[in-house]
Specification:
Alpha-Beta Plaits, Rossmann fold, alpha/beta, globular, four-stranded antiparallel sheet
């Protein structure tokens, strides 16, 4: 088994009496794409900031390649790369200027080859604010790896990016991982999380699930998922929730996912309820759960256990 390059043990962090992270532990093997998932306020960004040396943990141990982020920040900066959010870039800076600036900070030769590799050749002299969102994210990624870090931190790297640009961005991430870079990523897109080799789910500072996407699905899915296709999903959701017999009823685009531990019994009930209210039912069938189903189910379960509202 690959040795871990990131070690987090009994990590705890509070802000003015509010517990942001509560005794979480996990390791990340070298060369993996590792996903850190959770709703807003779960503690994901706090965890990244402490790993990056931007904040100090109250207790516990954090190490990256054997380096303590608090005790040896100067050593750490040559080991990690951090993708900046768009708000962290000067509006008038060009990709050429940004690359020279970042490489000077790390004491390396400017990596103009990365601008070519990331499809920014024609935009070298374009000011940052004139780039598309996808181009801004690709530039931020190029800058983050200009000094060839062993570990790359990506916090919601494709937020606000269109689906085509998201796919192109993730192809770059896969290439980096294949080249040996360890990547720790937070994302709200469950289809992206499916491609991580391992995940942790954090809910209100607590680690509630960990494993590969398939392992998490098996261990955390409390019940079967029934997919409902009808002519008015918006009207159908409150009708099904009103029955008070399902663990979860959630809208997925034009479809509805119902979590139940009695699928065989409840499929006829779903059909009867919807047709009885004048809706046209196209299909009702049991399906394999997606990571998004598990995410919602785990969050609901954690709310019950942790008393979260």
């Amino acid at each position: 088994m690959t040795q871990p390059i990131i070690n987090v043990a009994h990590f705890h962090k509070t802000y003015d009496g509010y517990t942001a992270v509560d005794d979480i532990s996990f390791t990340v093997p070298a060369g993996e794409i590792f996903g850190l998932l959770g709703p807003n306020g779960a503690g994901k960004t706090t965890t990244l900031e402490c790993l990056e040396g931007l904040r100090q943990p109250d207790s516990g141990t954090l190490q990256i390649a054997g380096i303590d982020p608090v005790k040896a920040p100067h050593q750490l900066r040559n080991v990690i790369g951090v993708q900046l959010q768009s708000s962290g870039m000067p509006a008038a800076i060009t990709p050429d200027e940004a690359m020279k600036l970042f490489c000077a900070y790390h004491g390396t030769t400017p990596r103009s080859d990365l601008l070519d590799r990331f499809g920014l050749t024609a935009k070298r002299k374009t000011q940052f604010h004139e780039l598309s969102t996808g181009q801004q994210r690709r530039l931020a990624l190029a800058l983050a790896i200009a000094h060839k870090p062993r570990v790359l931190f990506l916090d919601e790297p494709t937020a606000g990016v269109d689906p085509i640009s998201r796919r192109a961005f993730w192809e770059l991430i896969y290439d980096l991982a294949e080249g040996g870079t360890t990547i720790l990523v937070t994302t709200h897109y469950m289809d992206e999380a499916e491609h991580c080799q391992e995940l942790v789910f954090i809910q209100r500072g607590h680690l509630v699930a960990q494993g590969s996407p398939e392992e998490v699905k098996i261990s955390q899915m409390h019940g079967d998922v029934v997919e409902v296709d009808c002519d008015n999903a918006g009207q159908a959701v409150p009708l099904l929730r009103g029955l008070n017999v399902f663990a979860e009823v959630a809208l997925y685009g034009a479809l509805i996912h119902v979590v139940t531990d009695k699928a065989a019994e409840h499929i006829p009930l779903i059909k009867k309820t919807l047709t009885g209210h004048g809706l046209t039912v196209i299909s009702v069938e049991r399906i394999a759960p997606s990571l998004e189903d598990v995410f919602i189910s785990s969050a609901r379960e954690a709310e019950k256990v942790l008393g979260v509202r």
